Amino acid sequence: MSLFDDPSDVSCPQCGTTDPIEIVYGLPSSEMIEAAAEGAIALGGHVIRDDIPAFLCRNDGCGHKFGRL
Question: Domain locations in the chain?
Fold first, then answer.
């Protein structure tokens, strides 16, 4: 489940790759760990601040974190 209507419409501001990976914050459940291992989400850690990124670029050569929750 995404926090956003259609993440496929979002593109990386650094390289332009579309459909980024959503970064999920908080204590991960076993399902979240499995989804992260499959590349469906990225785990962002349990510390939540005002300036944390919402997305991770799916392009292996880029890996830019961007957007805000």
Answer: 7-66
